[in-house]
Amino acid sequence: MKNHEIDYKIYGEELQCVEIELDPNEAVIAEPGSFMMMNDGIKMETLFGDGSNSGLMNKLFTAGRRMLTGESLFMTVFTNTSGQKRQVSFAAPYTGKIIPLNLSDYAEKIICQKDSFLCAAKGVSIGIEFQRKLGTGLFGGEGFIMQKLEGDGMCFVHSGGYVMEKELQPGEILKIDTGCIVAFTQSVSYDIQFVGGIKNTLFGGEGLFFAQLRGPGKVWIQTLPISRLAGKILQYGSGTRKEEGSILGKLGDLIDGN
C-alpha cells in the first residue's frame, strides 16, 4: 500500500507538537493520546492495528504485535473528508524533541524504541523487531523488543531531552545505554555487551550491560529516557528529602510536621 504524502511543521523547543497538513482524502495515523487539535472536516476513527493491512486476520495479527511492545491494541486514523486542505496536530508526551523521518530516505525501514512512535502517514506499517541473538533478548532491557516502521512515507518519533544524531562508519562501534537509543537504520547491527568488573557491576549504577551498535548506518540518541526520568521522580517522592544540605532537610521535615 502506498503511503499518503503529508506536509508538516514542528512547533516549540522542548515541549513540541507537530502540525500535519492533509490534502482531501489524505490520512495520518497516531498513537492514542497524542492528539492535540484539528480543523473541522477531519474525521477521526479508532481501528485495530496500524491501518496498513486489510482483512480481519491481518488486523488482529497487527494489533497482537503491537500489544507485545506494550502499546495499545488500537491506533487512531485522522482523514481529511473535506474538499480543502486541513490541519491536525499531535503533541509530544513529555519534554524532548520530535524527529521527522522520511522512510523513503532510509530504505523504507527504521527501527525505534518501542514507546517513541508518535504518528505517521497512513500506509506506514508499525510492527515489532525481535533481536536475533539470545543475549540481546534476555539482557537488552528497553532494547529487547524494538518497533519497526516500514513504508515510503513520513513518520514522527519522539525523544526525551536533547536528541543527537550519529552517522556510524562501516565497522564503527558505539556503546550506549539501552534506554538512550531512539532509533537506528536497518543497516546498523544491535547487540549487548557485559560491563565487566565487580565494582562496575555492583556500584556503577549504570546497569550490567551496554547496547552495542555497529555501523554502517545512522543512529538517533536521546539524553533523557522516560524510564530514567520516572525513576528519579519515584526516588524523590519516596518520602526521603534530598535538599542541598542536611540542616535544610531537617527544617523541611519540621515544617511538614514529620
List keywords for this structure.
258 residues, alpha+beta, six-stranded antiparallel β-sheet, 19 strands, 18% helix, 41% strand, AIM24
Structure description:
The protein is of the alpha+beta class and 258 residues long. The protein is 18% helix and 41% strand. The protein has 5 helices and 19 strands. The strands form 4 sheets. It has a 6-stranded antiparallel β-sheet with strand order 5-6-3-10-13-8. Strands 11-12-9-16-19-14 form a 6-stranded antiparallel β-sheet, with helices on one face. A hairpin with a 5-residue loop joins strand 1 and strand 2. It starts with 6 loop residues before the first strand and ends with a helix. 34% of the residues are buried. About 9% of the residues have low confidence.
**Overall pLDDT score:** 79
Helix run count: 5
Q: How many beta-strand segments? A: 19
Report the radius of gyration as a whole number of Å: 21 Å
Largest sheet: 6 strands, antiparallel
Distance between the termini: 63 Å
The spatial strand order of the largest sheet comes to 5-6-3-10-13-8
The percent range for strand residues is 35-45%
Shape: globular
State the low-pLDDT regions, or none.
136-143, 199-206, 243-248
Helix coverage percent = 10-25%
Structural class: alpha+beta
Organism: Epilithonimonas pallida
InterPro entries: AIM24 (IPR002838), AIM24_sf (IPR036983), Trp_RNA-bd_attenuator-like_dom (IPR016031)
Pfam families: AIM24
Protein name: TIGR00266 family protein
